[in-house]
């Protein structure tokens, strides 16, 4: 039988409105991680990511964005989080956006950690982001956060998948 | 059931095809992913790709970000999902791409995300393009079929192909 390379680690379907969602105690037995976020919020919001509870200024990111009328790129460095959105924000209408994040080689303790993220919202635009966590620690938890005063709405779903290279 | 499952693969035969369709899609997965490689018969360099659901070529919209040694962005009143390589482009080159459709069986509007490339090792920015996009089908029906078409005309050539995967989150 062929090995299963792509496995569900955890799915969180929100039964109450929350500002943050955390995947904790992530098994260290995969090669890469993928997060798929099918969410909506109390009001339009950016989406932020941190690892292992680290909220220090250890994050940076570059985003390429397009709105349907214009395109551009922005950077942020020495930030307290990786912003996964610029125009492709989470909206208050369910079913209007798609957000994914790919985290390669997450369990190694040699390299800093990279995130490749897509944010697609027909309401506003498309973002492709690369983020860096300047830490060589293995990733054991991932926290998704919204702008303060915003909450993920009931029914939002966030799924963490593990991918095995062998 | 595994998290990532092949539902169907379709490859265009020698006669070409005006559309590529996945129909009677099982409603047992959480999300859909389509991986494709496409070329057309149209006498041009690259052509716009259009997608619609459940046989209804309506209620679609999208925003696209593209790069071809320059950058730009545009919107459409249909679900744009990249570019096919057309007949006047470099021989044997097909465009490739991926589409992700979350919660396709749900009762909300359906959002899509795509990546597409048509790289042909050319120095002309007119015939190479990479694009990313966000699409929306403003309908609450579950998706039971997906159809690809060439917005600017022509047919898909032989060896164009697409594979539909179902992804389960539990």
Secondary structure topology:
The complex is a heterodimer of chains A (166) and B (170).
Chain A: E1 6-13, E2 20-23, E3 32-38, E4 47-51, E5 59-66, E6 71-79, E7 82-83, E8 97-103, E9 113-121, E10 125-133, E11 142-146, E12 157-163
Antiparallel strand pairs in A: 1-12, 2-11, 3-8, 3-12, 4-7, 4-11, 5-6, 5-10, 8-9, 9-10
Chain B: E1 4-11, E2 19-22, E3 31-38, E4 46-53, E5 60-67, E6 71-76, E7 79-85, E8 95-101, E9 110-118, E10 129-137, E11 146-150, E12 161-167
Antiparallel strand pairs in B: 1-12, 2-11, 3-8, 3-12, 4-7, 4-11, 5-6, 5-10, 8-9, 9-10
What distinguishing features does this structure have?
heterodimer, A: 166 residues, mainly beta, eight-stranded antiparallel β-sheet, four-stranded antiparallel β-sheet, 0% helix, B: 170 residues, 12 strands
Give a verbal description of the structure:
- With 166 residues, chain A is an all-beta fold.
- Chain A has no helices and 12 strands.
- The two termini of chain A are 14 Å apart.
- By secondary structure, chain B is mainly β.
- Helices cover 0% and strands 51% of the residues of chain B.
- Chain B contains no helices and 12 strands.
- Chain B has an 8-stranded antiparallel sheet with strand order 1-12-3-8-9-10-5-6, with no helix packed on it. In chain B, strands 2-11-4-7 form a 4-stranded antiparallel sheet, with no helix packed on it.
- In chain B, a hairpin with a 3-residue loop joins strand 5 and strand 6.
- The relative contact order of chain B is 0.38.
- Chains A and B meet through strand 1, strand 5, strand 8, strand 9 and strand 10 of A and strand 5, strand 6, strand 9 and strand 10 of B.
